[in-house]
DNA sequence: TGCAAACATGACGTTAACGTCATATTATAT
DNA sequence: ATATAATATGACGTTAACGTCATGTTTGCA
């Protein structure tokens, strides 16, 4: 189904209309083209884009961060963007991501050992 | 230096007084004991606690999440907490963390390949 | 053609995690 | 003893990322 209106779009992408309009308002999502009537029309790519945004949010990126990188997923980057600047941004994101990965890994191992400690305790005190 | 007031505490921990009072107000930090005068006094442990909170924030946890787990770092968990409940919470956090790790890893590899693509492009178009 | 459902736009509300005064009391250096 | 610095408390402000009304126009179906 190509060329849909906001109702179908939001159902397919699992977001609300408010979210779509908000994303449009901050330039994260291109405003679907308006017909003479004033309605916006969207395509499959818009769906994919919303899903990608959702993924990146789960990574812990802010909408502003996402705006920095989202184009990489959906446009031919051959002539569009000021390349060196984008490269700088990407490297920064990479560094940030590595930091996060390390912190998250440490946290995971803390959790793990605490869980094991509790399990051992519960096992030892079975009667309670 | 043990037994300090909020000024030294915040300097050592690298947070503002507002942050400390906010954390106290939501029960994330135990309110330093008040003397007759009304002032609060803190210890080295408070500093460590604030630093731990900061670490966990970088992991992407909300203050509420942190409240769930912070005690594990600072109290003898042998009799204090309703153990089975805590264990459930910990397992949930572990699952969430694994999700995040996977998403973050995927994002990292996307970034990496995009960076490489840009680098190749810049190398190929050196004159620009 | 009539009318409910879908869409557009604007405005105000909400939560988290604090920031920023303002004011009053306590502590400290001279 | 007094001026200055530090602390306590309260209240209002702020940003992100939307939620929730209210109101008006458009569309789709009987």
TrEMBL record, chains A, B:
Gene3D superfamilies in alphabetical order: 1.10.1660.10
Molecular function per GO: DNA binding; DNA-binding transcription factor activity
SUPFAM superfamilies with a match to the protein in the record: Putative DNA-binding domain
Name of the protein this chain belongs to: MerR family transcriptional regulator
Pfam families documented for this protein: MerR_1 (PF13411)
Positions of the HTH merR-type domain: 3-72
PANTHER family: MERR-FAMILY TRANSCRIPTIONAL REGULATOR, REDOX-CYCLING DRUG-SENSING TRANSCRIPTIONAL ACTIVATOR SOXR
Alphabetical UniProt keywords: DNA-binding, Repressor, Transcription, Transcription regulation
Signal sequence annotation: none
Coiled-coil features, chain-numbered ranges: none
